[in-house]
Design a protein that fits this description.
Blueprint (H helix, E strand, L loop, with lengths): L11 E7 L8 E5 L2 E7 L5 E5 L13 E3 L2 E3 L6 E2 L5 E3 L17 E2 L1 E4 L2 E6 L20 E9 L3 H8 L5 H4 L11 E9 L2 E6 L8 H6 L7 E7 L3 E7 L5 E12 L2 E11 L4 H33 L12 H13 L7 E8 L1
Antiparallel strand pairs: 1-11, 2-3, 3-4, 4-9, 5-6, 6-7, 7-8, 10-11, 12-18, 13-14, 13-19, 14-15, 15-16, 16-17, 17-18
Helix pairs in contact: 1-5
The structure holds FE2/S2 (inorganic) cluster and fe (ii) ion.
FE2/S2 (inorganic) cluster binds next to loops.
């Protein structure tokens, strides 16, 4: 097997779990190379520590919550949200609590139904990413969680890749009539965006059912550091549809993706929601299947690829992520028009 090194980009918030997954019992989640225990105190506030008891290394996530602390299931050491040892049930009388080393606490924020954990050496310097239009008047959002078995940059490229759609999702997005489309690729700061300047409205059952005919389509695909993809479709101000995905690396080839499907359409949610849930699940499952094969291939053959102009975002995603992971100087902003056939 080829060896890979997981590119972890520090200095960002990552989704560890959906808020609804964290109930009375502690849970373990791996986030960008850290194995964490998460739990809630009595007030419902979430906490995260590295999932290892300082005493004999037991997984704290196998324990329980006692007096707002997570209690180790082996000998009962109890730690608070800062990782301070608060209790040892078997301590002899007169014996003081020992100083513990190596307990690491991570900042957690519950925002927009998700538990975000700060991965970084310093204190948080920014807020978690906000899913656009979540909770706004006239907009509806639902979240999907999906596990992919491929490297995170391959997942991100897939979510923003146009030419795979007719092969992997036949009949769902586009028909096979190829067309030359003018695009503008703009990389600036922490993101890179492709604007499709004169794309024909999409075909396929999804777009046909929810978007109006004869209205000009506005379409952008965007990557945002460290691991977010955002796709926008707009057909006038009253038909808008967004697919925003946040990736968390559990392991090198295990990526959990939280996708927010968000829309504003002049159709009853009672109809749009079940349809979009079915449609998006079908589309995403097709990507899960193709990426699982790609991931397995990469384990055997490694990572060396060929590119053409239509691979608009892959190399930018790779460059932005590599620079951020290495803490190198920021890449120069750029903008260029590219004509592609899709
Ligand atoms: S291993 Fe945790 S209390 Fe002993
Ligand atoms: Fe896809």
């Amino acid at each position: 097997m080829k060896s890979f090194i997981m590119d972890t980009i520090k200095g960002y918030w990552y989704i560890a779990a959906a808020g609804s997954e964290l109930k009375a019992k502690p849970i373990n989640r791996k986030v960008e190379g850290e194995s964490l225990v998460l739990w809630r105190d009595e007030a419902g506030n979430p906490h995260a520590l590295r999932d290892r008891c300082a005493h004999r290394g037991m997984a704290l996530s196998a324990g329980k919550v006692v007096n707002d602390c997570v209690q180790c299931p082996y000998h009962g050491y109890a730690y608070d949200g800062q990782g301070r040892l608060k209790d040892i049930p078997s301590l002899c009388s007169g014996e003081r609590l020992p100083r513990v080393r190596g307990m690491k606490s991570l900042p957690v924020i519950e925002q927009q139904e998700q538990l975000w954990v700060w991965i970084g050496e310093q204190e948080p310097t920014r807020k978690p990413f906000e899913f656009p239009h979540y909770g706004e008047e006239g907009w509806t959002t639902f979240f999907m969680q999906t596990r992919f078995h491929a490297p995170v940059d391959m997942c991100l490229e897939n979510f923003l890749d146009v030419p795979h759609t007719i092969f992997v999702h036949p009949g769902l997005f586009r028909n096979e009539d190829q067309d030359t489309v003018q695009t503008r690729v703009t990389r600036s700061g922490e993101s890179v965006v492709v604007t499709f300047l004169d794309e024909k409205p999409m075909e396929g059952i999804g777009p046909r059912l929810v978007f109006p005919k004869g209205v000009k389509q506005k379409h952008t695909d965007r990557f945002i550091l460290p691991s977010i993809s955002r796709v926008d479709y707009e057909y006038g101000s009253d038909h808008q549809f967004l697919i925003v995905s946040q990736c968390t690396q559990r392991e090198e080839f295990v990526v959990d993706v939280t996708t927010a499907i968000t829309w504003k359409l002049p159709l009853p949610t009672l109809i749009t929601k079940p349809f979009l849930k079915w449609y998006c699940r079908k589309v995403i499952q097709q990507d899960v299947d193709i990426l699982e094969i790609q991931g397995a291939q990469m384990k055997v053959f490694g990572r060396h690829f060929t590119h053409t102009k239509v691979d608009l975002l892959g190399r930018h995603i790779h460059a932005l992520r590599r620079n951020a992971a290495q803490g190198s100087r920021k890449l120069k902003d750029m903008s260029q028009e590219v004509s592609i056939r899709i």
